[in-house]
Amino acid sequence: MREQLSKTRQRLLQSIKSLLCVIALAEPLALNAQVYRTINCTAGNLSTLLGADMSTVTDLTVTGTIDARDIQTMREIKNINLSNASLVAYDTIEANVLPEYAFQGSKNLTSIILPNTLITIDEKAFFECEALTTVVLPNNVTDINVYAFDGCTKLTTVNIPTSLNVIFSYVFHRCSSLLSITIPSTVTAIYDYAFGETNSLNTLFIPSSVTTIVATSFANSSAYVTVDAANPYFSSENGILFDKNKTTLIHYPTSIIGNYTIPSTVTTISFEAFGSSKKLNSVFIPNSVSIINSLAFYNCNGIKSISLPNSITRIEDHAFAYCSGLTSIFSYSTNPSAIVMPANVFYGVNKTTCTLYVPSGTLALYLAADQWNDFVNIVEMPSYPVADATVSNPSNPLSSGAKVNYGTSTTISASHTLAGSSNSESWTRTFIRVDLRGIPANAVITRATFSMKGTSTGNTASARFRKVVGNYWAENTITWNNQPSASSTEVIPVTTVNGNADVDITRFVTCWYRNMDRNTTINYTIDRNFGMVYELDPSVTTAASNIFGSTNNTNAALRPSLTVEFYIPSNPGVIIVTEDATISNHSNVGGTENNNNCLNGNNEVSFALGGSSAGTKTRRSLLQVDLSSLN
pTM for this structure? Predict the structure, then answer.
Protein backbone atom coordinates (compact mmCIF):
# COMPACT_ATOMS: atom_id res chain seq x y z
CA MET A 1 0.00 0.00 0.00
CA ARG A 2 2.78 2.43 1.00
CA GLU A 3 4.71 1.57 -2.15
CA GLN A 4 1.64 2.30 -4.32
CA LEU A 5 1.17 5.75 -2.66
CA SER A 6 4.81 6.54 -3.34
CA LYS A 7 4.43 5.78 -7.04
CA THR A 8 1.26 7.92 -7.21
CA ARG A 9 3.10 10.86 -5.57
CA GLN A 10 5.95 10.57 -8.09
CA ARG A 11 3.51 10.60 -11.01
CA LEU A 12 1.79 13.69 -9.55
CA LEU A 13 5.09 15.54 -9.08
CA GLN A 14 6.08 14.70 -12.65
CA SER A 15 2.77 16.07 -13.96
CA ILE A 16 3.24 19.31 -11.99
CA LYS A 17 6.77 19.74 -13.41
CA SER A 18 5.48 19.20 -16.92
CA LEU A 19 2.73 21.74 -16.37
CA LEU A 20 5.20 24.32 -15.02
CA CYS A 21 7.43 23.74 -18.04
CA VAL A 22 4.51 24.36 -20.42
CA ILE A 23 3.61 27.57 -18.55
CA ALA A 24 7.22 28.74 -18.68
CA LEU A 25 7.37 28.13 -22.45
CA ALA A 26 4.01 29.80 -23.05
CA GLU A 27 4.85 32.98 -21.13
CA PRO A 28 7.18 34.55 -23.74
CA LEU A 29 4.73 33.59 -26.48
CA ALA A 30 2.01 35.41 -24.62
CA LEU A 31 4.23 38.46 -24.26
CA ASN A 32 4.70 38.59 -28.05
CA ALA A 33 1.12 37.75 -28.99
CA GLN A 34 -1.11 40.23 -30.77
CA VAL A 35 -3.67 41.79 -28.45
CA TYR A 36 -6.65 43.25 -30.31
CA ARG A 37 -9.10 45.82 -29.01
CA THR A 38 -11.97 47.61 -30.71
CA ILE A 39 -13.30 50.61 -28.81
CA ASN A 40 -16.17 52.99 -29.48
CA CYS A 41 -14.80 56.14 -27.94
CA THR A 42 -16.04 59.48 -26.74
CA ALA A 43 -13.42 62.21 -27.11
CA GLY A 44 -10.96 62.30 -24.22
CA ASN A 45 -11.90 58.90 -22.74
CA LEU A 46 -9.65 56.45 -24.59
CA SER A 47 -7.27 56.07 -21.66
CA THR A 48 -10.13 55.14 -19.33
CA LEU A 49 -11.67 52.73 -21.84
CA LEU A 50 -8.39 50.92 -22.42
CA GLY A 51 -7.72 50.61 -18.72
CA ALA A 52 -5.21 47.90 -17.88
CA ASP A 53 -4.97 46.91 -21.55
CA MET A 54 -3.14 50.13 -22.38
CA SER A 55 0.28 48.51 -21.88
CA THR A 56 -0.53 45.24 -23.69
CA VAL A 57 -2.76 46.08 -26.65
CA THR A 58 -0.95 45.84 -29.99
CA ASP A 59 -3.77 46.28 -32.50
CA LEU A 60 -6.32 49.00 -31.81
CA THR A 61 -9.42 49.93 -33.79
CA VAL A 62 -11.25 53.06 -32.64
CA THR A 63 -14.66 54.33 -33.69
CA GLY A 64 -16.66 57.26 -32.39
CA THR A 65 -14.94 60.56 -31.54
CA ILE A 66 -11.38 61.25 -30.44
CA ASP A 67 -9.27 64.33 -29.78
CA ALA A 68 -5.63 65.27 -29.14
CA ARG A 69 -5.68 63.65 -25.68
CA ASP A 70 -6.63 60.29 -27.16
CA ILE A 71 -3.86 60.58 -29.76
CA GLN A 72 -1.37 60.88 -26.90
CA THR A 73 -2.84 57.76 -25.32
CA MET A 74 -2.37 55.59 -28.42
CA ARG A 75 1.01 56.88 -29.65
CA GLU A 76 2.98 53.74 -28.64
CA ILE A 77 0.45 51.17 -29.89
CA LYS A 78 1.79 49.09 -32.79
CA ASN A 79 -1.09 48.97 -35.31
CA ILE A 80 -3.88 51.54 -35.30
CA ASN A 81 -7.06 51.79 -37.37
CA LEU A 82 -8.87 55.13 -37.07
CA SER A 83 -10.72 54.99 -40.38
CA ASN A 84 -14.17 55.25 -38.74
CA ALA A 85 -13.18 57.64 -35.97
CA SER A 86 -13.67 61.42 -36.07
CA LEU A 87 -11.13 63.91 -34.73
CA VAL A 88 -12.97 66.66 -32.90
CA ALA A 89 -11.68 70.04 -31.74
CA TYR A 90 -9.78 70.32 -28.47
CA ASP A 91 -8.30 73.42 -26.92
CA THR A 92 -6.71 75.36 -29.85
CA ILE A 93 -6.65 72.34 -32.18
CA GLU A 94 -9.35 72.39 -34.82
CA ALA A 95 -11.52 69.43 -35.80
CA ASN A 96 -10.16 66.98 -38.42
CA VAL A 97 -6.58 68.04 -37.75
CA LEU A 98 -3.93 65.56 -36.63
CA PRO A 99 -1.96 67.70 -34.15
CA GLU A 100 1.68 68.66 -34.61
CA TYR A 101 4.10 66.20 -32.97
CA ALA A 102 1.16 63.74 -32.60
CA PHE A 103 3.24 60.56 -32.91
CA GLN A 104 6.72 62.16 -33.00
CA GLY A 105 9.44 59.75 -31.94
CA SER A 106 7.13 56.77 -31.38
CA LYS A 107 9.25 53.63 -31.13
CA ASN A 108 6.43 51.11 -31.63
CA LEU A 109 3.99 52.53 -34.18
CA THR A 110 4.21 50.29 -37.26
CA SER A 111 1.06 50.99 -39.28
CA ILE A 112 -1.81 53.43 -39.11
CA ILE A 113 -5.02 54.08 -41.02
CA LEU A 114 -6.05 57.68 -40.47
CA PRO A 115 -9.65 58.93 -40.08
CA ASN A 116 -11.69 59.19 -43.27
CA THR A 117 -12.70 62.72 -42.31
CA LEU A 118 -9.14 63.96 -41.71
CA ILE A 119 -8.23 67.21 -43.52
CA THR A 120 -4.81 68.25 -42.14
CA ILE A 121 -1.71 66.42 -40.93
CA ASP A 122 0.20 69.00 -38.95
CA GLU A 123 3.91 69.65 -38.60
CA LYS A 124 6.10 66.73 -37.48
CA ALA A 125 3.05 64.54 -36.81
CA PHE A 126 5.09 61.37 -37.51
CA PHE A 127 8.58 62.86 -37.21
CA GLU A 128 11.18 60.10 -36.71
CA CYS A 129 8.69 57.29 -36.17
CA GLU A 130 11.43 54.81 -36.94
CA ALA A 131 9.25 51.65 -36.83
CA LEU A 132 6.48 53.02 -39.09
CA THR A 133 6.18 51.03 -42.33
CA THR A 134 2.68 51.80 -43.65
CA VAL A 135 0.35 54.83 -43.61
CA VAL A 136 -3.06 55.04 -45.24
CA LEU A 137 -4.16 58.61 -45.91
CA PRO A 138 -7.82 59.41 -46.64
CA ASN A 139 -8.86 61.23 -49.81
CA ASN A 140 -10.03 64.28 -47.82
CA VAL A 141 -6.52 65.37 -46.78
CA THR A 142 -5.65 68.76 -48.28
CA ASP A 143 -2.58 69.63 -46.20
CA ILE A 144 0.44 67.60 -45.09
CA ASN A 145 2.62 70.09 -43.30
CA VAL A 146 6.41 70.34 -43.03
CA TYR A 147 8.44 67.45 -41.61
CA ALA A 148 5.26 65.33 -41.29
CA PHE A 149 7.02 62.02 -42.09
CA ASP A 150 10.63 63.18 -41.90
CA GLY A 151 12.92 60.44 -40.58
CA CYS A 152 10.41 57.57 -40.95
CA THR A 153 13.26 55.35 -42.09
CA LYS A 154 11.18 52.14 -42.42
CA LEU A 155 8.23 53.66 -44.27
CA THR A 156 7.89 51.66 -47.50
CA THR A 157 4.49 52.69 -48.86
CA VAL A 158 2.28 55.74 -48.58
CA ASN A 159 -0.52 57.02 -50.78
CA ILE A 160 -0.76 60.70 -51.63
CA PRO A 161 -4.47 61.59 -51.83
CA THR A 162 -5.90 63.32 -54.89
CA SER A 163 -7.16 66.12 -52.63
CA LEU A 164 -3.58 67.32 -52.03
CA ASN A 165 -2.25 70.38 -53.92
CA VAL A 166 1.14 70.99 -52.31
CA ILE A 167 3.87 68.70 -50.95
CA PHE A 168 5.54 70.90 -48.37
CA SER A 169 9.18 70.99 -47.29
CA TYR A 170 10.73 67.89 -45.71
CA VAL A 171 7.43 65.94 -45.75
CA PHE A 172 9.10 62.66 -46.85
CA HIS A 173 12.68 63.67 -46.09
CA ARG A 174 14.90 60.78 -44.91
CA CYS A 175 12.24 58.17 -45.71
CA SER A 176 15.11 55.94 -46.74
CA SER A 177 13.02 52.78 -47.27
CA LEU A 178 10.32 54.38 -49.41
CA LEU A 179 10.22 52.32 -52.60
CA SER A 180 7.57 54.03 -54.70
CA ILE A 181 5.11 56.87 -54.52
CA THR A 182 2.56 58.33 -56.91
CA ILE A 183 2.13 62.07 -57.20
CA PRO A 184 -1.48 62.78 -58.27
CA SER A 185 -2.35 65.23 -61.02
CA THR A 186 -3.79 67.63 -58.43
CA VAL A 187 -0.34 68.51 -57.04
CA THR A 188 1.05 71.83 -58.27
CA ALA A 189 4.13 72.36 -56.05
CA ILE A 190 6.90 70.29 -54.43
CA TYR A 191 9.06 72.21 -51.97
CA ASP A 192 12.52 71.96 -50.33
CA TYR A 193 13.72 68.43 -49.49
CA ALA A 194 10.18 67.06 -49.83
CA PHE A 195 11.79 63.82 -51.07
CA GLY A 196 15.34 64.52 -49.91
CA GLU A 197 17.49 61.52 -48.94
CA THR A 198 14.95 58.96 -50.15
CA ASN A 199 17.67 56.45 -50.90
CA SER A 200 15.46 53.53 -51.93
CA LEU A 201 12.98 55.39 -54.11
CA ASN A 202 13.03 53.84 -57.57
CA THR A 203 10.91 55.99 -59.84
CA LEU A 204 8.89 59.16 -59.53
CA PHE A 205 6.44 60.52 -62.10
CA ILE A 206 5.88 64.27 -62.24
CA PRO A 207 2.47 65.08 -63.75
CA SER A 208 1.79 68.04 -66.01
CA SER A 209 0.04 69.86 -63.13
CA VAL A 210 3.31 70.52 -61.24
CA THR A 211 4.44 74.11 -61.80
CA THR A 212 6.88 74.50 -58.90
CA ILE A 213 9.88 72.34 -58.05
CA VAL A 214 12.73 73.90 -56.09
CA ALA A 215 16.38 72.95 -56.48
CA THR A 216 16.41 70.68 -53.42
CA SER A 217 13.02 68.97 -53.78
CA PHE A 218 14.80 65.67 -54.56
CA ALA A 219 18.24 66.38 -53.08
CA ASN A 220 20.27 63.22 -52.42
CA SER A 221 17.44 61.00 -53.68
CA SER A 222 17.87 57.83 -55.70
CA ALA A 223 14.64 58.43 -57.63
CA TYR A 224 14.62 58.24 -61.42
CA VAL A 225 12.33 61.10 -62.36
CA THR A 226 10.03 60.99 -65.35
CA VAL A 227 8.16 64.16 -66.28
CA ASP A 228 4.92 64.21 -68.24
CA ALA A 229 5.80 65.50 -71.72
CA ALA A 230 2.87 67.92 -71.41
CA ASN A 231 4.41 69.64 -68.38
CA PRO A 232 5.21 73.23 -69.47
CA TYR A 233 7.90 73.85 -66.82
CA PHE A 234 10.01 70.69 -66.42
CA SER A 235 11.50 67.83 -68.44
CA SER A 236 13.51 64.67 -67.85
CA GLU A 237 16.04 62.50 -69.62
CA ASN A 238 17.13 59.05 -68.43
CA GLY A 239 15.78 59.75 -64.94
CA ILE A 240 17.51 63.14 -64.62
CA LEU A 241 15.37 66.23 -63.94
CA PHE A 242 15.75 69.51 -65.88
CA ASP A 243 13.76 72.63 -66.47
CA LYS A 244 11.66 72.53 -69.63
CA ASN A 245 14.38 73.72 -72.00
CA LYS A 246 17.13 71.67 -70.33
CA THR A 247 19.10 74.79 -69.43
CA THR A 248 19.13 73.94 -65.70
CA LEU A 249 20.02 70.50 -64.33
CA ILE A 250 17.97 70.08 -61.13
CA HIS A 251 18.32 66.48 -59.95
CA TYR A 252 20.67 63.60 -60.74
CA PRO A 253 19.65 60.28 -59.09
CA THR A 254 22.18 58.98 -56.55
CA SER A 255 21.56 55.43 -57.80
CA ILE A 256 23.08 55.93 -61.28
CA ILE A 257 26.44 54.19 -61.73
CA GLY A 258 29.32 55.23 -63.99
CA ASN A 259 30.17 58.32 -66.05
CA TYR A 260 27.85 61.12 -67.09
CA THR A 261 27.98 63.76 -69.81
CA ILE A 262 25.84 66.80 -69.08
CA PRO A 263 23.81 67.90 -72.15
CA SER A 264 25.24 70.86 -74.05
CA THR A 265 22.01 72.83 -73.49
CA VAL A 266 22.68 73.16 -69.75
CA THR A 267 23.93 76.52 -68.46
CA THR A 268 23.31 76.07 -64.72
CA ILE A 269 23.84 73.15 -62.32
CA SER A 270 21.44 73.53 -59.41
CA PHE A 271 22.01 73.51 -55.68
CA GLU A 272 22.81 69.90 -54.59
CA ALA A 273 21.97 68.59 -58.07
CA PHE A 274 24.50 65.72 -57.82
CA GLY A 275 24.79 65.70 -54.01
CA SER A 276 25.92 62.34 -52.56
CA SER A 277 25.93 60.60 -55.96
CA LYS A 278 28.57 58.22 -54.67
CA LYS A 279 28.27 55.84 -57.64
CA LEU A 280 29.23 58.55 -60.12
CA ASN A 281 32.79 57.99 -61.42
CA SER A 282 33.27 61.01 -63.64
CA VAL A 283 31.23 63.88 -65.06
CA PHE A 284 31.81 65.89 -68.21
CA ILE A 285 30.61 69.49 -67.96
CA PRO A 286 30.10 71.04 -71.42
CA ASN A 287 31.23 74.47 -72.53
CA SER A 288 27.67 75.77 -72.16
CA VAL A 289 27.71 75.71 -68.33
CA SER A 290 28.51 79.01 -66.62
CA ILE A 291 27.23 78.51 -63.04
CA ILE A 292 27.79 75.62 -60.61
CA ASN A 293 25.68 76.23 -57.52
CA SER A 294 26.39 75.42 -53.86
CA LEU A 295 26.85 71.77 -52.90
CA ALA A 296 26.25 70.76 -56.52
CA PHE A 297 28.65 67.79 -56.23
CA TYR A 298 28.85 67.63 -52.45
CA ASN A 299 30.05 64.27 -51.12
CA CYS A 300 30.37 62.65 -54.56
CA ASN A 301 33.29 60.64 -53.25
CA GLY A 302 33.24 58.18 -56.15
CA ILE A 303 34.22 60.82 -58.70
CA LYS A 304 37.80 60.29 -59.86
CA SER A 305 37.91 62.98 -62.55
CA ILE A 306 36.00 66.14 -63.42
CA SER A 307 36.25 68.76 -66.17
CA LEU A 308 35.55 72.48 -65.76
CA PRO A 309 35.03 74.24 -69.09
CA ASN A 310 36.24 77.68 -70.07
CA SER A 311 32.63 78.91 -69.89
CA ILE A 312 32.50 78.72 -66.07
CA THR A 313 32.06 82.14 -64.46
CA ARG A 314 30.92 81.21 -60.95
CA ILE A 315 31.32 78.23 -58.60
CA GLU A 316 29.39 78.52 -55.31
CA ASP A 317 30.03 77.34 -51.72
CA HIS A 318 31.13 73.74 -51.19
CA ALA A 319 30.31 72.85 -54.80
CA PHE A 320 32.86 70.00 -54.76
CA ALA A 321 33.25 69.61 -51.00
CA TYR A 322 34.14 66.10 -49.81
CA CYS A 323 34.74 64.77 -53.32
CA SER A 324 37.48 62.83 -51.59
CA GLY A 325 38.04 60.41 -54.50
CA LEU A 326 39.13 63.12 -56.93
CA THR A 327 42.56 62.44 -58.41
CA SER A 328 42.35 64.77 -61.43
CA ILE A 329 40.63 68.06 -62.25
CA PHE A 330 40.75 69.45 -65.79
CA SER A 331 40.18 73.20 -65.76
CA TYR A 332 39.96 74.81 -69.20
CA SER A 333 39.71 78.43 -68.06
CA THR A 334 42.47 80.64 -69.44
CA ASN A 335 41.73 83.28 -66.78
CA PRO A 336 41.21 81.44 -63.47
CA SER A 337 41.17 84.61 -61.35
CA ALA A 338 38.02 85.73 -63.19
CA ILE A 339 35.99 82.80 -61.86
CA VAL A 340 33.97 83.88 -58.82
CA MET A 341 34.46 81.21 -56.14
CA PRO A 342 34.73 81.15 -52.31
CA ALA A 343 37.54 79.43 -50.43
CA ASN A 344 35.56 76.28 -49.62
CA VAL A 345 34.68 75.10 -53.15
CA PHE A 346 37.10 72.14 -52.93
CA TYR A 347 36.84 71.61 -49.17
CA GLY A 348 37.68 68.00 -48.28
CA VAL A 349 39.48 67.33 -51.59
CA ASN A 350 43.05 66.12 -51.10
CA LYS A 351 44.99 68.87 -52.84
CA THR A 352 48.25 66.95 -52.54
CA THR A 353 47.17 63.81 -54.41
CA CYS A 354 44.66 65.43 -56.79
CA THR A 355 46.36 66.81 -59.91
CA LEU A 356 45.03 70.01 -61.44
CA TYR A 357 45.45 70.02 -65.24
CA VAL A 358 45.34 73.47 -66.86
CA PRO A 359 45.61 74.81 -70.44
CA SER A 360 49.04 75.13 -72.01
CA GLY A 361 50.66 78.44 -71.13
CA THR A 362 48.45 79.17 -68.07
CA LEU A 363 50.48 77.54 -65.28
CA ALA A 364 51.66 80.90 -63.87
CA LEU A 365 48.08 82.23 -63.82
CA TYR A 366 46.84 79.27 -61.79
CA LEU A 367 49.78 79.48 -59.39
CA ALA A 368 48.78 83.09 -58.71
CA ALA A 369 45.01 82.47 -58.37
CA ASP A 370 43.39 81.95 -54.97
CA GLN A 371 41.87 78.49 -54.35
CA TRP A 372 43.57 77.10 -57.45
CA ASN A 373 47.06 77.57 -55.99
CA ASP A 374 46.08 75.36 -53.05
CA PHE A 375 46.74 72.37 -55.31
CA VAL A 376 50.27 71.05 -54.97
CA ASN A 377 50.39 69.46 -58.44
CA ILE A 378 49.37 71.86 -61.20
CA VAL A 379 50.27 70.53 -64.63
CA GLU A 380 49.71 71.99 -68.07
CA MET A 381 47.63 69.67 -70.20
CA PRO A 382 49.55 67.58 -72.72
CA SER A 383 48.98 68.19 -76.41
CA TYR A 384 47.99 65.43 -78.80
CA PRO A 385 49.33 66.16 -82.30
CA VAL A 386 46.83 65.46 -85.07
CA ALA A 387 47.51 64.22 -88.57
CA ASP A 388 44.74 64.71 -91.16
CA ALA A 389 44.29 64.32 -94.89
CA THR A 390 41.25 64.43 -97.17
CA VAL A 391 40.91 62.04 -100.12
CA SER A 392 38.60 62.50 -103.10
CA ASN A 393 36.87 60.04 -105.43
CA PRO A 394 35.34 61.07 -108.75
CA SER A 395 33.01 58.46 -110.23
CA ASN A 396 35.93 57.12 -112.23
CA PRO A 397 38.57 55.96 -109.69
CA LEU A 398 41.22 55.94 -112.42
CA SER A 399 40.91 59.68 -112.91
CA SER A 400 43.60 62.03 -111.68
CA GLY A 401 41.42 63.20 -108.76
CA ALA A 402 41.53 59.78 -107.13
CA LYS A 403 45.30 59.85 -107.16
CA VAL A 404 45.72 63.29 -105.57
CA ASN A 405 46.98 63.79 -102.02
CA TYR A 406 45.41 66.68 -100.08
CA GLY A 407 47.48 66.34 -96.91
CA THR A 408 48.62 69.98 -97.04
CA SER A 409 45.16 71.48 -97.55
CA THR A 410 43.93 74.08 -95.04
CA THR A 411 40.57 72.30 -94.77
CA ILE A 412 39.26 68.79 -94.25
CA SER A 413 35.88 67.59 -95.48
CA ALA A 414 33.27 64.93 -95.96
CA SER A 415 31.17 65.66 -99.03
CA HIS A 416 29.08 64.38 -101.92
CA THR A 417 28.91 66.23 -105.24
CA LEU A 418 26.35 65.27 -107.86
CA ALA A 419 27.36 64.91 -111.49
CA GLY A 420 26.90 68.00 -113.63
CA SER A 421 27.58 69.19 -117.14
CA SER A 422 31.19 69.99 -116.30
CA ASN A 423 31.98 67.51 -113.52
CA SER A 424 31.44 63.92 -112.51
CA GLU A 425 29.91 62.64 -109.26
CA SER A 426 32.45 62.62 -106.45
CA TRP A 427 32.93 62.09 -102.72
CA THR A 428 35.46 63.23 -100.16
CA ARG A 429 36.36 61.73 -96.80
CA THR A 430 39.09 62.59 -94.30
CA PHE A 431 41.55 60.37 -92.46
CA ILE A 432 42.54 61.49 -88.96
CA ARG A 433 45.11 60.14 -86.50
CA VAL A 434 46.26 61.40 -83.07
CA ASP A 435 49.46 60.95 -81.06
CA LEU A 436 48.51 59.85 -77.52
CA ARG A 437 51.97 59.79 -75.90
CA GLY A 438 51.02 62.80 -73.74
CA ILE A 439 48.72 60.60 -71.63
CA PRO A 440 50.58 59.34 -68.52
CA ALA A 441 51.23 55.65 -68.04
CA ASN A 442 48.56 53.62 -66.21
CA ALA A 443 45.88 56.27 -66.78
CA VAL A 444 42.20 55.39 -66.86
CA ILE A 445 40.59 57.48 -69.59
CA THR A 446 37.21 58.90 -68.61
CA ARG A 447 36.54 60.96 -71.72
CA ALA A 448 38.19 61.84 -75.02
CA THR A 449 36.66 64.54 -77.20
CA PHE A 450 37.70 65.29 -80.78
CA SER A 451 36.80 68.81 -81.90
CA MET A 452 36.50 70.13 -85.43
CA LYS A 453 35.84 73.81 -86.15
CA GLY A 454 33.68 74.68 -89.14
CA THR A 455 34.77 77.24 -91.67
CA SER A 456 31.07 78.20 -92.01
CA THR A 457 27.84 77.73 -90.04
CA GLY A 458 26.69 74.95 -92.40
CA ASN A 459 28.01 71.42 -91.90
CA THR A 460 24.58 69.93 -91.23
CA ALA A 461 24.86 66.69 -93.22
CA SER A 462 24.75 63.41 -91.27
CA ALA A 463 28.26 62.04 -90.82
CA ARG A 464 30.28 59.52 -88.84
CA PHE A 465 33.72 58.36 -87.71
CA ARG A 466 34.83 54.82 -88.54
CA LYS A 467 37.84 53.21 -86.95
CA VAL A 468 40.61 52.47 -89.49
CA VAL A 469 41.68 48.83 -89.26
CA GLY A 470 43.67 48.37 -92.46
CA ASN A 471 47.22 49.62 -92.18
CA TYR A 472 49.39 52.67 -91.54
CA TRP A 473 48.85 55.70 -93.79
CA ALA A 474 50.97 58.82 -94.22
CA GLU A 475 49.52 62.32 -94.24
CA ASN A 476 51.52 63.36 -97.31
CA THR A 477 50.95 60.27 -99.48
CA ILE A 478 47.44 58.95 -98.81
CA THR A 479 44.97 59.13 -101.75
CA TRP A 480 41.60 57.62 -102.56
CA ASN A 481 43.29 54.82 -104.46
CA ASN A 482 45.64 53.73 -101.64
CA GLN A 483 43.44 54.46 -98.61
CA PRO A 484 43.28 51.79 -95.87
CA SER A 485 40.08 49.95 -94.95
CA ALA A 486 37.85 50.95 -92.04
CA SER A 487 35.60 48.97 -89.72
CA SER A 488 31.94 48.55 -90.62
CA THR A 489 30.96 48.04 -86.98
CA GLU A 490 33.15 50.38 -84.94
CA VAL A 491 31.28 53.55 -85.80
CA ILE A 492 30.67 56.81 -83.91
CA PRO A 493 28.01 59.28 -85.19
CA VAL A 494 29.18 62.88 -85.67
CA THR A 495 26.74 65.74 -85.09
CA THR A 496 27.41 69.46 -85.43
CA VAL A 497 26.26 72.51 -83.49
CA ASN A 498 26.61 75.88 -85.22
CA GLY A 499 28.91 74.27 -87.76
CA ASN A 500 31.29 72.78 -85.17
CA ALA A 501 31.64 69.17 -83.98
CA ASP A 502 32.68 67.98 -80.51
CA VAL A 503 32.62 64.20 -80.63
CA ASP A 504 33.07 61.70 -77.83
CA ILE A 505 35.62 59.19 -79.17
CA THR A 506 36.52 57.70 -75.78
CA ARG A 507 36.00 54.18 -77.10
CA PHE A 508 38.53 54.62 -79.89
CA VAL A 509 41.12 56.46 -77.78
CA THR A 510 40.93 53.90 -74.97
CA CYS A 511 41.71 51.14 -77.46
CA TRP A 512 44.59 53.07 -79.08
CA TYR A 513 46.04 54.03 -75.70
CA ARG A 514 45.92 50.48 -74.41
CA ASN A 515 48.02 49.24 -77.33
CA MET A 516 50.41 52.19 -77.36
CA ASP A 517 54.17 51.70 -77.56
CA ARG A 518 55.78 54.31 -75.27
CA ASN A 519 59.02 54.59 -77.20
CA THR A 520 60.24 58.10 -78.01
CA THR A 521 59.72 57.49 -81.73
CA ILE A 522 56.07 56.64 -82.26
CA ASN A 523 55.30 53.45 -84.16
CA TYR A 524 51.68 53.43 -85.27
CA THR A 525 51.99 49.92 -86.68
CA ILE A 526 52.97 48.44 -83.32
CA ASP A 527 50.37 50.61 -81.59
CA ARG A 528 47.65 49.52 -84.03
CA ASN A 529 46.63 53.19 -84.02
CA PHE A 530 45.60 53.67 -87.63
CA GLY A 531 43.23 56.49 -86.73
CA MET A 532 39.72 57.01 -88.03
CA VAL A 533 37.97 58.18 -91.15
CA TYR A 534 35.43 61.02 -91.23
CA GLU A 535 32.76 60.57 -93.90
CA LEU A 536 29.13 61.27 -94.71
CA ASP A 537 26.61 58.76 -93.51
CA PRO A 538 25.61 56.24 -96.25
CA SER A 539 22.04 57.57 -95.99
CA VAL A 540 23.14 60.86 -97.58
CA THR A 541 22.39 60.64 -101.32
CA THR A 542 21.90 64.32 -102.11
CA ALA A 543 24.61 66.92 -102.56
CA ALA A 544 26.13 67.75 -99.16
CA SER A 545 29.36 69.12 -97.74
CA ASN A 546 30.82 69.38 -94.23
CA ILE A 547 34.04 71.44 -94.19
CA PHE A 548 36.31 72.12 -91.20
CA GLY A 549 39.72 73.66 -90.63
CA SER A 550 42.68 71.30 -90.93
CA THR A 551 45.94 71.12 -88.98
CA ASN A 552 47.43 73.31 -91.74
CA ASN A 553 44.90 76.10 -91.33
CA THR A 554 46.51 79.51 -90.86
CA ASN A 555 43.94 80.31 -88.15
CA ALA A 556 44.96 78.24 -85.10
CA ALA A 557 41.42 78.51 -83.69
CA LEU A 558 40.08 76.48 -86.63
CA ARG A 559 42.48 73.57 -86.26
CA PRO A 560 41.15 70.20 -85.00
CA SER A 561 42.10 69.10 -81.50
CA LEU A 562 41.78 66.25 -79.05
CA THR A 563 41.17 66.65 -75.31
CA VAL A 564 41.58 63.66 -73.02
CA GLU A 565 40.50 63.42 -69.40
CA PHE A 566 41.78 60.67 -67.14
CA TYR A 567 42.83 59.67 -63.65
CA ILE A 568 45.61 57.50 -62.27
CA PRO A 569 44.24 54.63 -60.14
CA SER A 570 45.34 54.92 -56.52
CA ASN A 571 44.80 51.20 -55.84
CA PRO A 572 47.41 49.10 -57.66
CA GLY A 573 45.29 46.00 -57.10
CA VAL A 574 42.46 47.16 -59.32
CA ILE A 575 42.06 45.19 -62.53
CA ILE A 576 40.30 47.17 -65.25
CA VAL A 577 38.15 45.51 -67.92
CA THR A 578 39.32 47.38 -71.00
CA GLU A 579 37.24 45.70 -73.67
CA ASP A 580 34.50 43.15 -74.13
CA ALA A 581 32.90 41.79 -77.25
CA THR A 582 30.30 39.23 -78.17
CA ILE A 583 30.85 36.80 -81.04
CA SER A 584 28.29 34.53 -82.59
CA ASN A 585 28.46 31.21 -84.41
CA HIS A 586 25.71 29.75 -86.58
CA SER A 587 25.70 26.00 -87.12
CA ASN A 588 26.17 26.96 -90.75
CA VAL A 589 29.85 27.93 -90.76
CA GLY A 590 29.29 30.02 -93.85
CA GLY A 591 26.61 32.11 -92.13
CA THR A 592 27.11 35.87 -92.22
CA GLU A 593 27.06 36.26 -88.44
CA ASN A 594 30.24 34.21 -88.12
CA ASN A 595 32.11 37.22 -89.47
CA ASN A 596 30.42 39.82 -87.26
CA ASN A 597 32.13 41.60 -84.39
CA CYS A 598 29.65 43.01 -81.89
CA LEU A 599 31.89 45.76 -80.53
CA ASN A 600 29.73 48.55 -81.92
CA GLY A 601 28.28 50.17 -78.82
CA ASN A 602 24.84 48.71 -79.57
CA ASN A 603 25.45 45.05 -78.82
CA GLU A 604 24.24 43.01 -75.88
CA VAL A 605 24.72 44.79 -72.58
CA SER A 606 25.58 41.56 -70.79
CA PHE A 607 27.89 38.68 -71.50
CA ALA A 608 27.65 34.96 -70.77
CA LEU A 609 30.77 33.29 -69.45
CA GLY A 610 30.99 29.81 -70.84
CA GLY A 611 28.71 30.68 -73.74
CA SER A 612 25.00 30.55 -74.38
CA SER A 613 22.96 28.70 -76.95
CA ALA A 614 19.82 29.58 -78.89
CA GLY A 615 18.77 26.86 -81.34
CA THR A 616 21.60 26.29 -83.77
CA LYS A 617 23.32 29.58 -82.90
CA THR A 618 25.87 29.92 -80.09
CA ARG A 619 27.19 33.18 -78.64
CA ARG A 620 30.06 33.78 -76.27
CA SER A 621 31.75 36.88 -74.92
CA LEU A 622 35.44 37.77 -74.69
CA LEU A 623 36.91 39.96 -72.00
CA GLN A 624 40.21 41.79 -72.08
CA VAL A 625 41.64 43.21 -68.86
CA ASP A 626 44.44 45.66 -68.18
CA LEU A 627 46.92 44.21 -65.68
CA SER A 628 49.43 47.03 -65.96
CA SER A 629 48.51 48.42 -62.54
CA LEU A 630 49.48 45.20 -60.78
CA ASN A 631 52.86 44.92 -59.11
Answer: 0.78
